């Protein structure tokens, strides 16, 4: 039997569990709705489902089972006890910044008062991601003897060798990008993607790996478990912002981290939430993904990632307000530049509407923005997109794919054209000589995915000779290719009550690999519909099922109104959300439908 079927609306509907499967899960204490939704997300056994639902911190794996972590622990303890100069070397995106701040907060707690401790985050535009010789030379002059990387350096074979053999700096790498065949000769390389790693969780992001190191450090110094938990606010932010899979350990850490974030006393996080209009106690994963994460990312995209790191580390509320205000300004600037660039990119794309792969470019377009533009444009035109910032001799580009087109495999087919490139099936970055751009476009237009179609597990970083520099890597990949999935067809009126929403929320936080559930209802009574919102672009509907009525909103769906003329019943695909009462400022204990697709029901 097929595991999914195609809906009339073009969405794939997951297969309903069998009666015997429901009985098996119910006997283990897992209610049918949870069993179906978790099964759809790849959890197959009652034990896996119960562990997910309980999300107990004590069930997370022992940090010392992560490869090379015991060796890293030994070296860092020795450095702390001897008062050595330790430098944390981070990355510019929200994952790298939160990981850097987390390690700094932890090491500041453990080090001797007089021992030097600092951090270094390279410039997105001027240096690129990972280690570089200029930075290493500068750190040596400052006195660094031990460097701990986070969210970077798994591919930096030559740079690690230079740091150790020429400068005498020991390098401990903590990272989550897939390393090349030749591993850097670091003192320790803590990375769950190492081929010799037996750690049960592969998909920790940079801040997650950094947290495992801190877990081991704190436990080795017999610190209270509460001090570990206090750092989970940063883990939650970095993991969500990096679009890491929210299953397994990530799910547990992020769920607990969101609880900590909503109770935080960190001046920087409080200032950031206030400037963004968020209220502590009501921050959810969406707020991290679409409000806090972009503000932290704006620092590295528009100016200097250290602004975000200082915000997360400061204990001074006045200082925190200054940093938060600066990030708010940079985020507005980033939004304005993105919209301006989007307009230019749309115009250029419109000139070649028949191209199967869209390539747009402009002179000196902001390199911190082109990845965002590529993602948005690919979503709009529903085709693979490359956006290039053209310099005097070379262009830097960011590429985003769509279903059925493996971007990194396509780029490998013309690797000789690039100065550097890197990425994975859905997103990539590259540097190319200007006179090769048209050849690149022609290659992509002619290229077919073939057997490599759907290879969503491509390496996020290629071997060092093809690793993309900082400005070419994006921390936020596009959604999975097969994203039009319906979890369950709801046929009974009792599902359209607030209790259903409450049960759904028990599976949160939602994100990559654990998306917010999507449902379908057939032959709902269409009681009324009208346009609403800015310029009347949204579609509002009142629907009936049984003796219940429910409201729904289809954002930017007013164009579907004409198709509903004369319809008495409709098929609807939707998410369930709480109805919001601005007057009360809280949920009204009713639900509303966030409509994703709607069409008249076929007559019977």
Write up this protein.
The protein is an alpha/beta fold and about 600 residues long. The protein contains 20 helices and 19 strands. The strands form four sheets. A five-stranded parallel β-sheet has the order 4-3-5-6-7, with helices on both faces. Helix 19 links the parallel strand 14 and strand 15. Helix 5 runs antiparallel to helix 10 and helix 15 crosses helix 16. The longest helix has about 35 residues. The chain is globular. The two termini are about 25 Å apart.
Topology (SSEs and partners):
Layout: E1 4-6, E2 12-14, H1 19-27, H2 32-40, H3 46-54, H4 69-82, E3 86-89, H5 94-110, E4 117-120, H6 133-142, E5 146-150, H7 157-166, E6 170-174, E7 188-190, H8 206-220, H9 225-229, H10 232-241, H11 248-261, H12 267-275, H13 285-302, H14 306-313, H15 317-350, E8 358-363, H16 370-381, E9 385-390, E10 394-400, H17 407-412, E11 418-423, E12 427-433, H18 437-446, E13 485-486, E14 488-489, H19 498-505, E15 519-532, E16 538-545, E17 548-554, H20 561-564, E18 569-581, E19 586-600
Parallel strand pairs: 2-13, 3-4, 3-5, 5-6, 6-7, 8-9, 14-15, 17-19
Antiparallel strand pairs: 1-2, 9-10, 10-12, 11-12, 15-16, 15-18, 16-17, 18-19
Helix pairs in contact: 4-8, 5-8, 5-10, 5-14, 8-10, 10-11, 10-13, 12-14, 12-15, 13-14, 13-15, 14-15, 15-16
Q: Helical element count? A: 20
Contiguous uncertain segments of 5+ residues: 449-482
Strand order in the largest sheet: 4-3-5-6-7
CA radius of gyration: 25 Å
Assign a percent range to the helix content. Answer: 25-40%
Q: What can be said about the biggest beta sheet?
A: 5 strands, parallel
- C-alpha termini separation: 27 Å
- Quantity of strands, as a count: 19
């Amino acid at each position: 039997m097929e595991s999914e079927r195609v809906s009339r609306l073009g969405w794939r509907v997951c297969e309903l569990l069998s009666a015997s499967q429901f009985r098996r899960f119910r006997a283990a204490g897992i209610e049918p709705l949870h069993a179906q939704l978790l099964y759809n997300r790849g959890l197959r056994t009652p034990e896996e489902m119960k562990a997910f639902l309980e999300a107990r911190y004590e069930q997370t794996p022992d940090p010392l089972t992560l490869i090379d972590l015991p060796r890293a622990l030994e070296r860092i303890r020795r450095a702390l006890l001897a008062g050595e100069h330790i430098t944390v070397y981070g990355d510019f995106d929200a994952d790298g910044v939160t990981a850097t701040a987390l390690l700094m907060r932890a090491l500041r707690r453990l080090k001797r008062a007089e021992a030097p401790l600092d951090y270094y985050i390279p410039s997105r535009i001027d240096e690129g991601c990972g280690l570089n010789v200029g930075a290493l030379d500068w750190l040596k002059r400052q006195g660094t003897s031990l460097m701990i990387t986070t969210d970077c350096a798994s591919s930096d074979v030559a740079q690690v060798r230079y740091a150790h053999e020429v400068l005498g700096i020991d390098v401990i790498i903590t990272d989550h990008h897939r390393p090349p065949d030749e591993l850097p000769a670091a003192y320790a390389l803590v990375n769950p993607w190492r081929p010799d790693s037996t750690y049960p969780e592969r998909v920790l992001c940079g801040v997650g790996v950094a947290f495992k190191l801190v877990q081991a450090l704190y436990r080795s110094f017999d610190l209270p478990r509460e001090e570990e938990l206090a750092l989970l606010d940063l883990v939650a932010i970095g993991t969500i912002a990096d679009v890491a899979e929210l299953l397994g350990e990530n799910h547990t850490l992020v769920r607990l981290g969101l609880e900590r974030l909503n109770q935080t006393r960190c001046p920087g996080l409080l200032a950031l939430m206030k400037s963004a209009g968020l209220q502590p106690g009501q921050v959810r994963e969406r707020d991290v993904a679409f409000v806090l994460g972009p503000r932290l990312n704006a620092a590295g995209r528009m100016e200097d990632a250290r602004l975000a790191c200082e915000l997360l580390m400061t204990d001074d509320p006045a200082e925190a307000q200054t940093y938060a205000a600066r990030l708010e300004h940079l985020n507005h600037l980033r939004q304005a530049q993105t919209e301006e660039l989007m307009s230019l990119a749309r115009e250029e794309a419109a000139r070649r509407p028949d191209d199967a792969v869209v390539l747009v470019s402009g002179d000196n377009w902001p390199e911190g923005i082109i990845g965002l533009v590529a993602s948005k444009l690919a979503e709009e035109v529903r085709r693979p997109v490359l956006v290039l910032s053209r310099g005097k001799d070379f262009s830097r580009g960011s590429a985003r794919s769509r279903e059925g087109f493996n971007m990194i495999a396509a780029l490998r087919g013309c690797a000789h054209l690039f100065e550097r490139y890197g990425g994975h099936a859905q997103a990539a970055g590259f540097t190319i000589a200007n006179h090769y751009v048209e050849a690149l476009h022609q290659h992509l237009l002619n290229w077919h995915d073939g057997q490599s179609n759907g290879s969503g597990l491509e390496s996020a970083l290629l071997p060092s000779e093809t690793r993309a520099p900082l400005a070419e890597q994006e921390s936020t990949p596009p959604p999975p290719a097969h994203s039009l999935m319906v979890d369950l067809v709801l046929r009974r009126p009792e599902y359209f009550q607030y209790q259903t929403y409450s049960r759904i929320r028990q599976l949160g936080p939602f994100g990559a690999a654990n998306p917010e559930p999507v449902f379908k209802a057939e032959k709902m009574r269409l009681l009324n519909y009208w346009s609403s919102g800015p310029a009347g672009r949204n579609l509002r509907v009142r629907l009936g099922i049984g003796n219940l009525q429910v409201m729904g909103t289809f954002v930017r769906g007013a164009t579907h109104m004409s198709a509903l003329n004369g319809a008495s019943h409709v098929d609807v695909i939707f998410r369930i959300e709480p109805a919001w009462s601005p007057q009360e400022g809280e949920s009204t204990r009713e639900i509303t439908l966030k409509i994703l697709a709607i069409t008249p029901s076929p007559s019977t």
